[in-house]
Amino acid sequence: MSSPFQYAPAPESRSIVDIAPSYGLFIDGEFVDGTGEAFKTVNPATEEVLTEVSAGSEADVDRAVAAARRAFTRVWGPMRPADRGKYLFRIARLLQERSREFAVLESLDNGKPIRESRDVDIPLAAAHFFYHAGWADKLDHAGLGPNPRPLGVAGQVIPWNFPLLMLAWKIAPALATGNTVVLKPAETTPLTALLFAEICQQADLPPGVVNIVTGAGETGKAVVEHPDVDKVAFTGSTEVGKAIARAVAGTRKSLTLELGGKAANIVFDDAPIDQAVEGIVQGIFFNQGHVCCAGSRLLVQENVHDEVIASLQRRISTLRVGDPLDKNTDLGAINSAEQLARIRELSDIGDAEGAQRWQPDCVLPDRGFWFPPTVFTEVSPAHRIARDEVFGPVLSVLTFRTPDEAVAKANNTTYGLSAGIWTEKGSRILKIADQLRAGVVWANTFNKFDPTSPFGGYKQSGYGREGGRHGLTGNLKGATSS
Amino acid sequence: MTHVLDPDALSDRAATPAPQVPPFDDVTRSDAAFRAFLHGLPGVDQVGAEARVAVLGTRSIKTTAKAWAIDTAISMVDLTTLEGSDTPGKVRSLAAKARRPDPGDPTCPQVAAVCVYGDLAGIAREALGNSGIHVAAVATAFPSGRAAREIKLADVKDAVANGADEIDMVIDRGAFLAGRYLDVHDEIVAVKEASGPAHLKVILETGELVTLDNVRRASWLAMLAGGDFIKTSTGKIQPAATLPVCLVMLEAVRDFRNATGRQVGVKPAGGIKTTKDAMKHLVLVNETAGPDWLSPDWFRFGASSLLNDLLLQRQKLRTGHYSGPDYVTVD
DSSP string spanning A123-156? Predict the structure, then answer.
């Protein structure tokens, strides 16, 4: 069905960002050369090399942790909480002022559509700083105990799916509660974290309060295992999360983990079908499905299965896949060749196990890493595509007959990060939400985020909460959330 | 769908026979059956509908796409005047504008129709001559629809006799809100019959129906009754056309065609004033009902001031700079 209404290309200009030929590490308020081997970061939509970035060695991490410790002991720890809040407000405003720059850079480095980086990632990142800025001088009244104290130096390792947003989720609460930070961004998406380092300078944040050490797994390991780190916060794969938990076991470090997921999006037969279809699309194709809480398992009541799938396929056929910088793009590039290979591998297993693959007609660009939006029907709970996290634009459709069966199937996973319920019946929402073992349950919506709302998982999706009042506890000594 | 005891199933309804719309032949057999059918349509989540139109509102329509969309939008305008003060002179002036929206540019397309009260339909018909522009007349005790059915039907017949080839009727919102769906349906059937060969647009007056669930039900009701178009508003009630309402109506015509094979048009009316509003509606059509609706046969804008803004934007695309209100004509 070719439309006479073809949207002309509407690319966001990349002239607003100025990418340097190479980047160092941000330690003690300054950019310094790393002593590890530099690595390249590419634009996943074109495979163009964007720049070269230093890899932090153990010695670099050691310097960063020492700077953070110094800043914690001398400046940030003793600072009046209201003054810490001022810095956070300043950072939040600067993020807003330079939001276009961040959005373009994020889309270049990550491959996500500019519409999402512009309308979701960057505004939410700023919102997290605003929200936590407000907490800085109110911690005594947060219901977290009489005298909540910071832990000290936080070592934070973040993933590539929401580079700046995950940075904000980690740094904003850590700073608001009086901790200092050594953060390692993901290997494939370091650029917005480095631009954030510039914001720290622009905001006159005291040196050492935020340190950014780029690198791959080894650098992350050095951050996590550094003996002078008091708190480890990690968002990423369950596999790495387990390794971190093992490394931290037996030390005095406190740990929060936000790991994988295989969320069930449950559609009952009385759901608002058109909005449910939007929610399914938003649940699995938002950010190319590179979302730990993605609604990757659609559980649809069998008596509306055909109708919902027909609607869903029609809707998916309208998704615009392509240039992430085009303002009309809905689905961008897969972040890396490695991730693309994993998505392909799991999809092929889906075919082999007998599920039915459906993909719309869509032309993918010749260069870069791309995978079309994909729906597998006739998926059984025993299939790997119903159990393993694909972390890509691949939806597995299962059916159920009764609410009990829906709950049983939804909970039948080693993960427990999020879930969705679609029904016009309020009482059913409350009942099912109560029975789902997932940290976040959305009703008649999906993938909605807000700094006031705690986020985190059950089981192998990790522990600890981020955001809201609950999220503060993981950064404080002796705090208990009630 | 819920099963209900249907006490009226055997009582006979006189008047006009309802149209047979397979597979929905039997849903209008009684009040109870019709209510059960309309209430069994999937609900609409207001928050979700608003979120969807907000995302579509960010579509960036530039250069060639914009030029196409502006010309298409102009060709979809039902250029409207519905005032107590309307005179033959006013209608003739509007008709002249409809034929030649931009006197300085012969490549500018004509509008789809001129929309007037029924008593002025003859003037409009005469002024439009053989231009191919339709004459739409509002009827059925527009805008409130509060009159006896005989009066409404006489109103329709008068407009058709005067030369209207499109009738914009209003539904009986009082009956709809009181739950007398079959009365509303039967009235549309009767008006359709009275319209003869004229195209029937059914105004739902969504500003008075308020909820999107009601909009969906009223849309299906009007389509089952044989309406050729469903139209949002009279323009006399606020809010008039809104994007979420238009979304739900486009979903309804899409689903109706899937189920019955019959295509019904959509006309948002009232409150669409700028080119940007029009673009957003066209994007909504394109990505909801689909490209089959992207023609004046299936989508219209009921508007008056919209046309001049479209013309200004059209001039801007052609010349590269904005002109001003003196470079387009007053109606």
Answer: HHHHHHHHHHHHHTTTGGGTTS-SS-EE-SEEEE
Please give the structure tokens belonging to residue B51. Answer: 């979120």
User: Is A10 within 8 Å of B251 when comparing Cβ atoms?
Assistant: no
Nearest-by-Cβ selection for A5 from B43, B44, B291 = B291
How do residues A371-389 score in pLDDT, each as one tens digit? 999 999 999 999 999 999 9
Would A22-259+459-477 and A264-443 be classified into the same CATH topology? Answer: no
What is the residue-averaged pLDDT of chain B? Answer: 94
Q: What is the mean pLDDT of residues A361-371?
A: 96
Tell me: the pLDDT tens digits for B110-152? 999 999 999 999 999 999 999 999 999 999 999 999 999 999 9
For residues A332 and A270, what is the distance between their CA atoms, to the nearest angstrom?
33
Q: Say if A13 is an interface residue toward chain B (CB within 8 Å).
A: no
Residue B317 tokens read as 């695309």
Q: What is the 3-state secondary structure (H, E, C) of A335-393?
A: CCHHHHHHHHHHHHHHHHCCCEEECCCCCCCCCCCCCCCEEEECCCCCCHHHCCCCCCC
pLDDT value at position B21?
Answer: 87
Look at residue B50 in the predicted model and tell me its pLDDT: 98
Residue type, B253: V
User: What fold does the segment set A22-259+459-477 form as a domain?
Assistant: Aldehyde Dehydrogenase; Chain A, domain 1 (3.40.605)
Interface of B with A in 49-88 (CB under 8 A): 49, 51-52, 55, 58-66, 68-69, 72
Q: Are A208 and A67 within 8 A, CB to CB? A: yes
Taking CB atoms and an 8 Å cut-off, how many pairs form between chains A and B? 80
CATH number of A264-443: 3.40.190.10, 3.40.309.10, 1.10.287.110, 3.30.470.30?
3.40.309.10
Q: Pick from B43, B51, B294: which is nearest to A424 by CB?
A: B43
CA distance, residue B154 to nearest chain A CA (Å): 40
ipTM, two decimals? 0.95
pLDDT tens figures, A29-73 = 999 999 999 999 999 999 999 999 999 999 999 999 999 999 999
With CB atoms and an 8 Å threshold, state whether A278 touches B72: no
Q: What is the Cα–Cα distance from B168 to B142, expressed in whole angstroms?
A: 9
Bridge partner list, A27:
A30
Nearest to B62 among A8, A270, A271 (CB): A8
Residues of chain A with Cβ-Cβ distance to B251 below 8 Å are 274
Which pair of tokens denotes residue A441?
């349950």
Q: What residues of A are in contact with residue B282 (Cβ under 8 Å)?
A: 5
Nearest to A95 by CA among A77, A121, A63: A121
The residue extents of the domains of chain A are: 22-259+459-477, 264-443
Tell me what percent of the residues of chain A surpass a pLDDT of 90: 98
pLDDT of B2 reads: 42
Catalytic, out of A12, A258, A389, A466: A258
Residues 412-441, chain A, touching B (beta carbon < 8 A): 424
Contact criterion met (CB < 8 Å) for B59 and A328: yes
The rounded distance, in Å, linking the Cα atoms of A128 and A138 is 16
**Residue A126 pLDDT class (50, 70, 90 cuts):** very high
pLDDT of residue A323: 98
* B23/A contact by beta carbon, under 8 A: no
The phi, psi pair for B28, rounded to 5°, reads: -100, 20
Interface membership of B129 toward A (CB under 8 Å): no
Q: Which of B49, B55, B65 sits opposite A8 (nearest CB)?
A: B65
CB burial of residue B326 (10 Å; 0-12, 13-18, 19+): exposed
